[in-house]
Specification:
Elements (H helix, E strand, L loop, with lengths): L3 H8 L6 H6 L4 E5 L11 E5 L2 E7 L5 E5 L13 E4 L12 E4 L6 E2 L5 E3 L20 E4 L2 E4 L25 E6 L3 H8 L30 H10 L4 E7 L2 E9 L5 E9 L3 E3 L5 E2 L2 E8 L2 E7 L31 E3 L13 H6 L8 H10 L17 H20 L18 E5 L15 H8 L5
Parallel strand pairs: 11-19
Antiparallel strand pairs: 1-10, 2-3, 3-4, 5-6, 6-7, 7-8, 9-10, 11-18, 12-13, 13-14, 14-15, 14-20, 15-17, 16-20, 17-18
Helix pairs in contact: 3-6
Length: about 450
């Protein structure tokens, strides 16, 4: 469990908070590129780390992220006009342009500079002394990222592979969740729940396909193993970016199966997949009580020789849940208000929860804790080791930064290669070390990445 003080530090992210100060040292996904598709298009509200902002793509195609309230009298710039300055051309790519406040016509460019103040005398220089708060942005991997820390602390963008991602693989999506970002993220760092929350009875009817042996198994066999061994053992291995942990299970044939998930400070995970992958799952705070669950492809799919049958996690035989797409803003059909469309009859006879959507099972679990769960009430076990480690890393880094100015972990510019952030899954060979799987030393990674020159 955590003390009430630690729980407050861990969960509060607004300006002036200890954790908020830490989070602002990292480039953070603010919105999807698809939300601002065209130059001169409609602005978009963005609430991030407890701050109300507005994003827009100006007539030149450049993205701005500035404070929502106009510095003049506070009207929302979300209702503003995305246009050229009064003395400038209004065609794309031509001259000065920005977001004009609907109240008095003051206009601000993507850097927050007031570029037009038509309600003041033409001879006035007042506009040169007015500036809206603006944050730098970077487009990569279908996401618009921002840096909300002090300008003199800004580090290079952390490239997990999105900078060189071929256009055909660019995919990003997000789901709103009305709960604190940490409790949402803890679900991704909890391997034991897949043996319970996501279970369905028809797994028992999937035939043995012969992949329960050392090596790469099928997706069907992976699900059968989760169901067979429902009390995994956890091992956590610290890394420069955070850690990787293995959920270790015994297969029906008595072999050792591992699912390896990575955690990168402060809110990034990559969930186990056969044979390995680098898809990012991020839990970005909107404020203390709400977050975005954001997924993005970081690297082209790596599945040499069709390991896992060439299937993704949800391609399991007899899958009873609703198939969903993962790009764009994903709407919420299943919510607390309709009890996630839980079917009690199905819960008794077909699925463990009776909730017909896989992701909504996770949402139910984390949202039903309340907006911010009081972790002083917890009773943690051995299966919670990865969650405990994440909390200690975040609390330690936040306190060290606040007390001594200690540089946060996992920042770009220190010579680290973020494209090595990968997950993995396998049935181990005798004596095989799970810590090698999914790393640059893994022969399967070398086959897929280095031999083809894709990295």
């Amino acid at each position: 469990m955590l003390s009430p003080e630690d729980n407050e530090i861990l969960t509060r992210v607004g300006p002036g908070t200890i954790m908020g100060h830490l989070l602002r040292r990292y480039w953070t996904p603010a919105l999807l590129v698809s939300e601002l598709p065209l130059p001169g298009g409609d602005p978009v509200r963005v609430r991030l780390l407890g701050e109300n902002l507005v994003a827009f793509r100006d007539l030149n195609g450049t993205v701005g992220l500035i404070q929502e309230n106009c510095p003049h009298r506070g009207a929302s710039l979300y209702f503003g006009r995305n246009e050229g300055a009064s003395a400038a051309p209004t065609t794309p790519g031509a001259g000065i342009c920005g977001l004009r406040c609907p109240y008095h016509g003051w206009q601000f460019d993507v850097d927050g500079n007031c570029i037009d103040m038509p309600s003041e005398p033409a001879t006035s220089s007042f506009k040169d002394r007015v500036k809206a708060k603006a944050y730098p942005v970077h487009e990569s991997g279908g996401l618009i990222w921002t840096y909300m820390g002090a300008p003199d602390t800004m580090t290079p963008f952390r490239d997990f592979g999105t900078e060189s991602l071929p256009p055909e693989y660019v995919s990003a999506g997000k789901t709103f969740s009305p709960c604190n970002w940490v409790q949402a993220m803890e679900g991704n760092l909890d391997t034991s729940h897949i043996s319970w929350l996501h279970q369905f009875n028809a797994i028992d009817d999937i035939p043995d396909d012969g992949s329960d042996k050392p090596g790469y198994l099928s997706v069907d066999m992976s699900w059968k193993i989760w169901r067979h061994d429902r009390a995994p053992r956890l091992e956590v291995h610290d890394t420069w970016y955070g850690y990787r942990y293995a959920g270790i299970r015994t297969t029906p044939n008595g072999h050792t199966h591992v699912r390896i998930t990575g955690y990168c400070v402060p809110y990034m995970t990559t969930v186990a997949s056969i044979p390995f992958r680098a898809r990012l799952s991020m839990f970005v705070p909107i404020d203390d009580e709400n977050c975005w669950r954001i997924n993005a492809v970081a690297q082209p799919p790596r599945n040499p020789n069709g390991y896992g049958g060439g299937h993704e996690l949800f391609d399991v035989t007899n899958y009873p849940y609703v198939k969903r797409t993962f790009g764009g803003i994903r709407g919420r059909r299943w919510t607390a208000e309709n009890e996630y469309e839980m079917d009690r009859a199905a819960q008794r006879t077909e699925t463990f929860t009776g909730i017909p959507d896989f992701n909504s099972q996770d949402l139910m679990a984390t949202e039903s804790m309340g907006p911010i769960y009081d972790r002083s009430q917890e009773h943690l076990g051995t299966s919670d080791r990865a969650v405990i480690r994440m909390r200690r890393i975040l609390l330690g880094a936040a306190r060290a930064l606040a007390a001594e100015g200690t540089k946060p972990p996992a920042l770009a510019g220190d010579g680290h290669d973020f494209t090595t952030f990968r997950s993995a899954e396998k049935i181990l060979e005798p004596g095989e070390d799970w810590r090698i799987l999914g790393t640059d030393d893994d022969p399967t990674v070398q086959e897929a990445v280095f031999a083809t020159g894709q990295n």
